[in-house]
């Protein structure tokens, strides 16, 4: 299925009734210097000549503040200068506390209502969603909660050495030590040398479920029918891809457009597309913008999830808790990987990453599954995987 998916335009048409909103956005968003003539202009069209938010939240989503109960249902409107409602809100982040967050949203919602950008009912819905969110609230780790066993899985990349030659024995060993879920990685019709239709029964016979499969971006672009067929063969409700360290911000934006487009089609099949990070996505590029920010802000949260690899984020100084606080509700999948003292991979619970602190934010993150992984397992994949499972089951947060 060949597709050419165009990069979304960042130059959005202004709305004449948005004068007050644009003025507010200009106050909160010192991203791009306004034209000298803007202050003297009498119309929004004359005031706005450039997009002040070239990489920001698009109009494809609603005004959404994370977890269940925090979706206003109100369209994330363009305020006339390329900045959307969510752009204006998050320009004030981080928030000192929940009250500061609600105050920011309240001021904007009231201004939009007064300017007839939103109706009184929509303004009230935005404020209710903000009040119902956990944004700004610290999430303590009292130490009496456990990760649900039925939400723990293994990324089969950990056991890639034995999956091609001994899949039945490998899967049986994983099930024997407690795993109930697995995430195969590969490409359409090639998972450890087997077609999905051949591997899926072996996984099921071992007593494992497959909530997610890993595929390539090319599969999404060129063989979406195959992606859907493979997902259905495994019974997976997520398909995830990874990116490239060579991407520019424009590339990230184009990929975001791809994810939105295929995400809409996958949703019709009951599947959600997800993006799995490494470390390079967190390198600041033009204007201090990170590729990861482009991916999250330009993808529709109803269509696209993020699979947050905790090791890779931590390896480049990107705090998973701060990411969750910045983008609540976007992280349906965690890759739970630990870091040794020398920066290499460690079995979960035997390294330096404070998983209890991160998992305390699980509800805010929107986590569905916790998938353990070790890219360089010792002494072997199964032993490493079982160590990680036991340690994760014993963890309290």
Automatic annotation (TrEMBL):
<dbReference type="InterPro" id="IPR036237">
    <property type="entry name" value="Xyl_isomerase-like_sf"/>
</dbReference>
<dbReference type="InterPro" id="IPR013022">
    <property type="entry name" value="Xyl_isomerase-like_TIM-brl"/>
</dbReference>
<protein>
    <submittedName>
        <fullName>Sugar phosphate isomerase/epimerase</fullName>
    </submittedName>
</protein>
<dbReference type="InterPro" id="IPR050312">
    <property type="entry name" value="IolE/XylAMocC-like"/>
</dbReference>
<dbReference type="GO" id="GO:0016853">
    <property type="term" value="F:isomerase activity"/>
</dbReference>
<feature type="signal peptide">
    <location>
        <begin position="1"/>
        <end position="38"/>
    </location>
</feature>
<feature type="domain" description="Xylose isomerase-like TIM barrel">
    <location>
        <begin position="171"/>
        <end position="360"/>
    </location>
</feature>
<keyword id="KW-0413">Isomerase</keyword>
<dbReference type="Pfam" id="PF01261">
    <property type="entry name" value="AP_endonuc_2"/>
</dbReference>
<keyword id="KW-0732">Signal</keyword>
